[in-house]
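User: Assemble these into one structure.

Assistant: Restating your components, then the assembled model:
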Amino acid sequence: MAIPISYNIRNMRLRKGLTVMTALGIALTVTTAVFIMALLAGLQKAFSSTGNPLNVLVLRKGSTSELTGPFPQDNFQTLKTLPGIAKDKNGDPMVSGEITVVIVLARKDGSGEANVTVRGVMQDGLQLRSAVKLTDGRWFTPGQREVVVSNSIRKRFVHANVGDTLEFGKGPWKVVGVFDSGGMAYESEIWGDVNQMSSDFDRQGVYSSAYLRATDPIAADALKHQVSDDQRLKLDGMLEPEYYATQTKSGNVIQFIGWLVAAIMAIGSSFAAMNTMYAAVAYRSREIATLRVIGFSRPSILTSFVFEAILLSLLGAVVGIILILPFNGMTTGTQNAVTFSEVVFGLQITPRVVSIAIVFAMVMGLFGGIFPAWHASRREILAALRD
Amino acid sequence: MTLTRFVTKNTFRNLRRSLLTVLSIGFSLLLLTLMMAIWRNFYMSKGTEESALRLVTRHKVSLAFTMPSFYREKIRAVPGVAGVVPENWFGGVYKDDKSGNFFAQFGTDPDEFFKVFKDWQIPEDQVKAWQRDRAGAVVDSKQAQQYGWKVGQKVVITGTIFPVNLELTIRGIFTAPRPTQSLYFNQKYVEEAVPYMKGQEGFYTILADSPEAVRTIGSSIDGMFHNSPQPTRTETEAAFQLGFLAMLGNVKMFILSICGAVVFAILLVSANTMAMSIRERTREVAVLKTLGFTRGTVLGLFVGEAVVLALVGGVGGSVIAYFLGIGAGKAGGFAGALQVNAPTMLVAWVVAALVGFISAIIPSYNASRLGIVEGLRHIG
């Protein structure tokens, strides 16, 4: 027969100080783990949600990022004529030849500088990315030295408000608008007119990449293969989401260090939990013997104590998650391993993160509780009663 | 029995509890020591004497932009410059695109390279061989070890930025003060295959002739190119490397918050243990006081016990961290930053002792104030 849970809860309440301190220790570990997982979840979201599956991204063959391979504009003219490309509102093929460069901007918080991606786009480039919405000001005018910046660029870097002037390339650029991409990788970019950009960065006659909008998913797939297989072009086609999915590896360093830290802290907390549970068993030596006399079996005592340890760690998990909740959505940046520019992302405490954290805490509790519980269930009744 | 012996005996009278506490504190301090080591290696270490004499000039906009090759001779003419060598990021792939096979490849000028990187050790004949072979390369000894490379071996690097695959022959193996995870080859190889790279350089590494010159060279160079189409930015080698770190994100904040969490966690663990052990001994305290020990002595006994426990954990944790650091150093690259030195360990011990002290002060104070009669009556 099982020992009621209320027995464990009452016992934990009886030794409030001990319970609270142990739970807090576990809470800190959980907070750290959740923080790291939320960072990675945010990063993942930035990349996995970016890109329209109807957009085909074209790069120079062998190049792995928009930054690394310029191709001649002549090829772009050939691309335009490929079948399966949707029409824009003027009836022209919906395509955008683009220039991507990386510039250095000073961070607002004074923590130094970071690389930021500047993208020169054609007018169709804005339509190709209809998920990106203007939140302030207006879009840039073609032929003008005007740029629009993403929301997080405005928040994180100096001189990036509407009406400000950014200095890069061959001179000043006026910030005329702010856009919001809803957590996509574009959230870390500055956009302007492609022709202005290419002359400013001495990239005349070449494009870094091209985007083609296909009419439907089948056409997108066909378009992708057509671009890659055309021997004259020496270009590679890929669906936009595929390209961004490869960039999630930017989180590898954070992931490695994060898990190392979480694992070491978890071992430390497990020992602390074990200590508390041993003390709990020692205090209740006579009680346990009494339970045995009444007729509770050894397995049910074992289960009860393991359960108590898990309850303790769950309490820690709840406190830990509550501690980190205010940071949900907080934005931070890291270096994109593919484009070498800063990618801004938000801390995402998703249900998945929370459930992993809870399991993580329960494992700590289980590890901390199993030995003391075993010890409790093995004690001789008579010896314990005499204690 | 001396008081010290009394404290030591008491510390380990509940062996299991002490052991668990020491283990818990030890693991936390292991982490703390590693974090402090990273901090020291990134932000406090000066590097070698020669490294402190080196500066890096890059395009002002960002590293992704190139500068004309004639800048090199202009930079050389700046007072205080002892040597200047161009470096070009190749960004190719060795074997496959796995992170385990990642290392940096730079195109450079073999004639002057080791005159600027004086503190890197390499046999003279290997340098000569490298200078003679246009398709030759030199690699870090750590890497040669990792991939089993020997002098004379062929290595193929597939280009991703440039449409060329490098078929290089290893001509030399160098040992840098810190593992660099990089391979250097003759930039002429790329220039011949990729016409638009002719006359362009990624960045320049400059050797100053004195520490005083380091301070002036930067502004002289940047001033010289200020109004040109390719303005420059010059900073010390250390600052240049820190720039890469800063791009990873707010590393300082990350390390500090982890350290904070760890210290707070060990405080809790230690306080927990002390609260338990003092509560058990309420009657003993009363006996001690009856025997004539003062409040101050009783307080000292308990606090001492906590400090001993935390110190044992701290010393254990930091020693393990030390050996882990040595192991990680062998792996090279980023893990090299985990190397722990004596001052870092000492700081960890001080932190441990302080944590022990603070965690015990409140329960010990309460115990020392307990009335004798009340204490004797206590049923624990």
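Chain B touches chain A through 49 residues (CB under 8 Å).
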